[in-house]
Amino acid sequence: MSNHVNLETFANGALAERINLELSKVLENIADPNTDPKKARKVTMNITLKPNESRNLASVSITAKCNLQPAREIETNLMIDYNSEGKVVGAELKSGIPGQMYVDENGEVLTDRGEKPAETEIAKKENKVVNFK
User: Fold this and answer.
1) Is the pLDDT of residue 96 over 80?
2) Does the global pTM surpass 0.85?
């Protein structure tokens, strides 16, 4: 019997497989652009040995887990109002300022909710030339 346990072959390689599995989860989390790159991740391996009464055999339990970083917070603004029935409704503010229209990436004019404005909201071109005679 050897004095040392080879961790690469221990439990038919299951220990090394678990470590690699958890490590790959950590690497995926690090590569995710939605997580904070500066916060640490951790892989934890627990090996629990429970000996029998005569101390010539031990039952071994292996667990592996990792601590990942959550996705970053997403912030936006929500306009809160009442509909025609008096119920509270909400819509995401797209323009930055309530009531302000904006031009989207396609060059289209939209309301603060990101919708096409009604015809009455668009300034109509009128002939404002005054004929002085």
Assistant:
1) no
2) no
**What pLDDT digit, counting tens, does each position of 62-94 carry?**
999 999 999 999 888 888 888 889 999 888 887
Domain that holds residue 51: 10-67
Q: Which residues pair with 89 in a beta bridge?
A: 81
Give, for 86, the enclosing helix (H) or strand (E): none
Are residues 60 and 89 part of one domain? no
DSSP 68-131: PPPBPP----EEEEE-TTS-EEEEE--SSSTT--EE-TTS-EE-TTSSPPPTTTSPPP------
Pairing state of beta strands 88-92 and 58-67? unpaired
User: Are both 53 and 29 inside the same structural domain?
Assistant: yes
Give the tokens for residue 36.
Answer: 């904070």
